[in-house]
Amino acid sequence: MSRLNKLNQDPFYCNTTMVKLYDELMETVDPDVDHVGWLRGAVGSDWPREILDYGAGSGRVLKKLRRSGCTSTFHAVEPDESFAKLLSDDSEIAPVHVENNLSAIDATNIGLVFCTYGSLQYVSGIEAIVEELTDIHRIVESGSGVCALELFSSEAYDEIEEPMTVPIYLADKMWQMTLNVEHFDDGLMTSTTELRDGEEFAVMRETVLPVSVETTRDLFAEANFQNISVKRHGAYNRCVAS
After folding, report:
1. What is the dihedral of CA 74, 30, 121, 213, to 10 degrees?
2. Residue 145 — φ and ψ, nearest 5°?
3. Long-range Cβ pairs for the range 75-81 (8 Å, 24+)
4. Is 63 helix (H, G, I), strand (E, B) or coil?
5. Predicted confidence (pLDDT) per residue in 63-88, tens digit
């Protein structure tokens, strides 16, 4: 039994206030991230006809793709009901087909599978990551495509030893943001982000399994990927594979 099951805890949790603030928060804490450029480099000159965002969240990256001129049909895997509703209702990213797991995805023509912000790692262990990567490989192989994934870097999160609190301006007011990281013997890590302004409270809790660059490469190889490129990028290992 995994540690998550023992605690009866979901690996990802956002309260309602955090769901509303999520896009602005991510844009504020990571303003220079260029997911569109990274994904464009992964696929080459033209966007494929169909694209899958694994762990799409609020659809932030899909919106950026649309704004860049990408006309592909989008598929999204998002198990969180609040975020899944945002995706389904967002006319900016339409057409988008939202499912809560990979097995429900029609993999025939998907030329790019991508995963940002470590969404693949909301699991209980290495074996579960390999299982998900193997399913992604099936989709990539069927569509003669490529996958581009960001995985939480163990090196980055090992550097965080004490809670950090900083002021941050969101939704036209000042908040205090606290980040706390708790490490466990089995390699799992719980990262908790809290926002407080004296009246409102927002929280996001993520329990993930961070991995090193070397382990990232090994995981993709075990999932039958042949061409694998891994580079550390901030708090993540960015991998492009086919």
Report:
1. 110
2. -115, -150
3. 75/50, 75/51, 75/99, 75/105, 75/106, 75/110, 76/52, 77/52, 77/53, 77/101, 77/102, 77/105, 80/12, 80/14
4. helix
5. 999 999 999 999 999 988 888 888 88
